[in-house]
Amino acid sequence: MAACGLPDTWPVALDLLEKVDMSGLTDLGSLESALCACSKGFAWESCLLLLKDMEGRRYEMSQVAYGAAIHGQEGQWQQAVALLESMALNEVEGNVVIYSALSRVCSAASQWQKALDVFEAMRSSWVECNVIAFSTAIAACEKGSGSASWQNILTLLEQMYKEDLYPNSITLSSVIAAMHHQGHWELALLLMTEFRTKVDINVGVFNAAMDAARQGLQWQLICELLEEMQKNTVERDVISYSAAMAAMEQGLQWQRALELLDDLLQSHMQLDALCLNAAINACKKEGRWQESLFLMYQMEVLVGCSPDHRSLAACASACEKASAWRKILQVFEEMDVTIETDSLHAIRAAIMACFRGNSWFNASKMLEALLEQDLDPGASSVAVEAFWHRPQAQRIFEALPRCSVQSLRWEPGKKTNS
Length: 418
Fold this sequence. Notes:
mainly alpha, 25 helices
């Protein structure tokens, strides 16, 4: 059972334990080994059952057993807190590993205040805190919002320095992320520069720095960070590529976005819809409708899911910029697009594409359908306002049924007041 150390091997450990139990050879060691295996696989229910089995056999409860059980409560932070209380009843003292595991479970459930309470409980129990304990608490606060979580991070950093503890990569990535969430992206990047030769910079730190650079619209800096990752043999992950492609979108660097997508595909990492949509959006902003449509059509092959409303809206917008109204109408027909809330942005773009291409009939038909559905009053008004500022606006309104025009309270010579 001790060999079952991989996350997905916990069922094997339970099968072995059952065979050992049938032979009458179950002892505390075999139960703890099975518990550790379940903990690594986050099989929280099995962790609780094994702990209860130990108590029922009247074995002396240990820090190892409780630490493994708490670690395995991923997504069950209330259960994890209850286990800490159970420890006190069984007179088992907490240690830095147990408290850090509980703080991590609370942090993963976005309970940053509870995670901080656990850290303070550890401090008041006279347990010696290490850099991992501080880093876990800082990472939890980073998930919070507002000035309170930010102030707590500063306080924790100050306490670390007072206790001669030096930040590690987890600390650094959390502080950088917290800084840019508070709008201090320049300070976040300065911190990265300050510590890049003092801390073992991992992919998490680089990703946090790229997020900060993206907030500051610094796509050139993100390219530099990507080069530095390659130089320092830090392997990029999907998050790195997503952040970089989103930045290329902001910087109107569609070719660079496609190069990053190509790198990602060659790395054989699992591509997700977020990455692909970022590349589609980068092409959209420069009106590269052929590239946008190609990527959207490849979504099912590359990602394993059908294009979503974001992909469709981006492609429609790209077609609008290029007045490629025939192509977007073809896409609508192929995908059987219906008028609903999620497709409004795509339909608006399609209307504008038809307008730019002088396809008045198709523009009026879609606008009419949009008005009849009455899903979003703003949708029709945006389209009508766009038409009004063109000399050919009168032709659009003449093509619309009278009831639709009246529903907008439109009168010739006046703007819509909807």
